[in-house]
Amino acid sequence: MPTTIHVEPSGPGRFRVTVNEGASKSIHTVSLSPDYYEKLTGNQVPEEILIERSFHFLLEREPKESILREFDLPLIGRYFPDYESEIRQRLAT
After folding, report:
1. Where in 1-91 does DSSP place strands (E)?
2. pLDDT in tens, 45-79
3. Is residue 1's pLDDT more than 70?
4. Alpha-carbon dihedral angle through residues 19, 64, 2, 91, given to the nearest 10 degrees
5. Mutual angle of helices 34-41 and 83-92, in 10-degree steps
6. Nearest to 80 by CA among 58, 65, 55
7. 3-state class (DSSP) for residue 51
8. How many CB atoms lie within 10 A of CB 50?
9. What pLDDT does 2 receive?
């Protein structure tokens, strides 16, 4: 079953992320500071793309039900030390 990820802004530095897998879905709130956004992207890609690719990264490693309902984007790196280098690579291609 295909997985879709929909990211929409929900306030300054906050995004609502909906992950759909078939008939099942999960909803998450992600915070992203301007400093961390610049660190990962150099302001070269939209924030929504960074968050969408970050969710693809997470879903390759755990089911959507294991992803926290609310978190700051840098938290991913605490669980997956390769996150920052991996996401930079993915955004460059």
Report:
1. 3-11, 14-21, 24-31, 70-72
2. 999 999 999 999 999 999 999 999 999 999 999 99
3. no
4. 70
5. 60
6. 58
7. helix
8. 23
9. 86
31, two tokens: 């915070």
DSSP 31: E
Strand partners, 70: 29
| Predicted model pTM | 0.95
Q: What percent of the chain has pLDDT over 70?
A: 99
Q: Which residues contact 26 (CB under 8 A, 6 or more apart)?
A: 18, 19, 64, 65, 67, 69
**Amino acid of residue 15:** F
CA 61, CA 32: separation in Å to the nearest integer? 21
Task: Read off the tokens for 16.
Answer: 């609502």
